[in-house]
Amino acid sequence: MLIDLLIKKDKLKLQQCIEQFQHHQQLRHAFLFLSGQRTKQFLGSTPGLTLSFSAGMLMQFRHNAMAKTLRGLGMIQWLRRLL
Q1: How far is CA 14 from the centre of its chain?
Q2: 22 versus 1: which is more confidently predicted?
């Protein structure tokens, strides 16, 4: 009798934990979906396209000797602080 009562308590607690986990997972999936939609919307906007284009141009210069020199001199950190 006591064992059955304890088993029922544990099953109830487990069921509550499972429901809480499922609810958390649903919220997480909704958040990830909305984040993806916002990212796509931003990348399609004018500032997003500008940022994407600038990043693409900078990636082309990552092996350039002048870019390596500037990076070595700390100019990149100075530019980051400026912006």
Answers
A1: 31
A2: 22
What are the tens digits of pLDDT across the range 26-57? 999 999 999 999 988 988 888 888 888 887 87
What's this model's pTM, rounded to 2 decimal places?
Answer: 0.54
Give the span between the Cα atoms of 7 and 3, in whole angstroms: 6
* Tokens, residue 5: 């009562």
Find the DSSP H helices in the chain.
Answer: 2-44, 46-60, 65-73, 75-82
How many whole angstroms separate alpha carbon 30 and alpha carbon 36?
A: 10
CA pair distance 23, 70, nearest whole angstrom: 50
